[in-house]
Amino acid sequence: MINKLKRHSAKLIAFTGLGILLILSGCTNTNTNTSTGAIELQWRGVFWDERVVQPLIDEYQLLNPGVTIKYANRWPGGRSETAAQSYKDDLDRILKAGNTAEIPDIFMVENTWTGSYENYATPAPSAVIDANSVKANFYPAVTKDFVKGTNVMGLPLWMDTLAIIYNKDLLAAQSLATPPSDLTNFKNKAIQLTARSSGIITSAGFAAGTSGNVGFAPEFLNLLFLQNGVSMVDASGNPIFADSDDALTALQYFKSFAGSSGSWDTTQKFDGIAFLEGKLAMMVTTSWRLNDILSFKDAYALNLNIGVAPMPQIAGQPDINWASYWGLMVANNRPNSAAAWKFMAWLTQPEQLRKLRESEVASRRFFGILYPRTDMQNETDIRSDPYLQNFNSELPSATSWYMVNGLEVRKAFQDLIDSNGTQANISQAQTVIREIMSRQ
Question: I need a surface site. Which of 134, 201, 206, 243 has the fewest CB within 10 A?
Answer without folding.
Answer: 243
